[in-house]
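Predict structure. Input: Multidrug ABC transporter ATP-binding protein, 420 residues.
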Amino acid sequence: MFNRDRWSEIIEALTANWFRTVLTAFGVLWGIFILVILLAAGKGLENGVKQGFGGIATNSMFMWTQVASKPYKGMPKGRNYSFEIEDVKAIKQNVPYVRIVSPRNQLGGFQGTNNVIRGLKTGAYNVYGDYPEIIEQEPMDVSSGRFINYTDINEKRKVAVIGEGVRVGLYDREEEVIGSYIKINGVNFMVVGTYKRKGNNGDPEEMQKQIYVPFTSFSQAFNRGNKVGWMAITAEDGHPITNIKEDIINVIKKRHTIHPDDDRAVGNFDLFQEFSKVNGLFIALKAVAYFVGILVLVSGIIGISNIMLIVVKERTNEIGVRRALGATPWAIRGQILLESIFLTIISGMAGIILSTAVIWLVNFQLGKMDTSDMMFLNPSVNLGVIMVALAILIISGLLAGLIPAQHAIKVKPVDALRTE
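Output follows.
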């Protein structure tokens, strides 16, 4: 229950030497401020790095062929082999928890010769033969038209989806793109869509200079038959691709007569494993933020405890009078603890308000900038962090006042009354 006299006494005790109180409270304010700012900065860095993945399906791996390093069943060491479209079906049938298997073929590239022509304009671009599911693994915004679909796959349509960088390189500013034709290695493809890739992973500019065509028409137009250059494989949610990677590779080894112990024949890149390392880094950063913030906060709490000891000593005569008039030890202890908690919470809330203002200011400035290519985005802390901070403040206030409160109740009334 609210006791006006008690709170008036608390305010009077804390403002008796206001300069000392402000300096003491600053330690707690600064500790909470550092804690919140460090957590917000870590979150901002995490958001920026994850933006760099551009929504890519991180529970994925990429797999390609290499040279067999061991002889097996009459097959020589050092032989080359290729993935086949039948491998896709075999993986789906024999490996559980596989969600998407995207066979891919590729030609050209910005480091190669010009392979795409439109009128008098030419360019060197990566051209991918893909299935429609690739957009789930490498998300992109279709800025006009559409992406490839299964009708394109089944009918082997010579259609293409081009990046904004390709559009800029081959078309005039106001020129219509949809329905026009480009020539890829001498074969005409009709443009049915344009895209803009998300994120800032890799070379952001180069990611917009790619062309996607149906896998089947790519194979037919460029004489790839049933060959597959490489695969992008995504596992179901809750089942890390790392756990089933070996099963996938074993299916390939069995189908292509590769020695079971040949670890060099099938190349792979485990994106989930790399992404897990990044997540582990952010967990470590969060732990460091809590550690540093709490250490700074502890120093402030020690300051409050010390100042409360001084306050108790200054009020020895008052405590003696209260004890002589019948105040119980719990009443004395409760008064000291309440003063300590009050000072801690007020200074801590001031730290939270100050840190919130700083975070808002940073986000306000970032809102005026193009953050699509930045590695720092939307620094923030959630409500859970604030609740943790408040819990820390309450516990800290109790700890800060505990020793002074125990010291206060040990004062004998007769001795306290004699104190001048």
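The first strand starts at residue 60 and ends at 65.
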